[in-house]
Amino acid sequence: MSRPRKPATKPIRRPRRAASPPVEGERKRDATRKHLLERALALFQKRGVEATTMRDIAKAAGMSLGAAYYYFPSKEALVFAYYEDNQADLEQLAQAASGTVREQLGTIFHGKLATIRPQRKMLAAIVQRLVDPSDPVSAFSAQTRAVRDHALGVLDRVLVKAGLPPEVLPLATRALWLLQMAMMLVYVNDDSPDERRTHGLVDDALDMIVPMLPMLATPMGRALAERVTAALTRAEIV
After folding, report:
1. Nearest to 202 by CA among 185, 220, 183, 225
2. Is residue 154 within 8 Å of residue 94, measured between CB atoms?
């Protein structure tokens, strides 16, 4: 004989507490972390990542080596922190972007180049590492997946407005992200005034690609997207 069930009760919703303001210790830790990262990026830009040691960074920040390791256990951790901060800057820029899909993508692509401008030399020095998926600091590594997912999310939100069907969105988003990565690789070695060559290439590429996006919503476009996705899956390229 089964027991009578108790009447279902609605969960009690407790009022959310207002976020507590950061205490003095938290503010000091954040300020110290920011200072250490700024000193590291300045050295990376001047000497390169490989030639800079954690001891150099600690000295430049006026800290002991042990204190520097407390905030960042390695140079790679500093590079990861740069990626995260840079992505946060791009997301703020993307939220303010308006206009057509082409205009929004233009804002994002040109804005991304502008955000990495202060660290062009640093990134140029580690280009080989950036494109090697087995390297932790690579744009394609498992360690940078969270930043990569956020970058894809920025592009995905724009493409949703273009009316693309859900089944082709992943492919279109990743294709645009790869284009953005390619533009960054060109940009870090661009010696033209104000990097006009790369910015012009961005505009030319978007002017060609954006008008073709609606084609992906057609039966032929969906079929093509399915075939490309299947081919990439078979090649174990995610």
Report:
1. 183
2. yes
| Helix, strand, or coil (residue 18) | coil
- In terms of Cβ atoms closer than 10 Å to its own Cβ (0-12, 13-18, 19+), residue 177 is middle
Q: What angle do CA 115, 120, 121 make, to 5 degrees?
A: 155
CA–CA dist 57, 87 (Å, integer): 23
Q: What is the pTM of this model?
A: 0.83
User: Is residue 72 over pLDDT 70?
Assistant: yes
Domains defined for the chain, CATH in brackets: 26-73 (1.10.10.60), 75-234 (1.10.357.10)
pLDDT of 6 strictly over 70: no
* 3-state secondary structure at position 15: coil
Number of C-beta neighbours around residue 185 at 10 A: 16
User: What is residue 17's predicted lDDT score, i.e. its pLDDT?
Assistant: 46
